[in-house]
Amino acid sequence: MIDLAIYDMDRTVTRHATWTPFLLHCAARRAPWRLVFLPLVILSMLAYVLKLIDRGRLKEINHRLLLGGVTDQHVLEPLVNSFAARTVAGNVRPGAREAIARDKAEGRRVVMATASYRFYAAAIAERLGFDDCIGTNSVLGLDAQVHAKIDGENCYGPVKLRMIERWLSAEGLTRAHVRFYSDHASDAPVFEWADEAVAVNPHDRLLRLAADRKWAIEDWG
Q1: Do the beta carbons of residue 112 and residue 93 sit within 8 Å?
Q2: pTM summary value
Q3: How crowded is residue 176: how many other Cβ atoms within 10 Å of its Cβ?
Q4: What CATH number does the domain located at 2-218 have?
């Protein structure tokens, strides 16, 4: 039996979302000419808002546009590391650092569970002292190249809960007490599953849900 503290990443641990900034970071440093595709990136986001594509497909399209269809892991690694360092230096909520320190002091296994791609979220999680990172996986070819395609499911909404449960099973862990933090109502399935739910800087929909369910509400700055 193990006590867990599970954190969403974007706008929970971080102040701002990270996926598009990560792609722009990579494009600017590796292939600046790819920035000419920014109008197509905006169009893909509009297609998502209009519900013409889902979030997973949006990620795949923008990955291909700004990073390329396939990227060698050795090329990607320094870009991931530099972006993770920049994120930890300037895009982490002060309250997140305090919560992570508190949960670790309580003996909890501290886990990040994010819809962002694991190949860069794990680098951010490691720098912040997380023990594990669950995230959206990308296809890794036999040639050790990262493909612009999701491997399995996008770790979002009810899928996030399924991926957390699969991770527990794969690690051979049995939950004792689970504390879960997120800023977004899309994580309602995990909030409901957790023993202790904490809405962090919640948007209106989650604020209403937290008030109705008597979940804790925290401002992490």
Answers
A1: no
A2: 0.94
A3: 11
A4: 3.40.50.1000
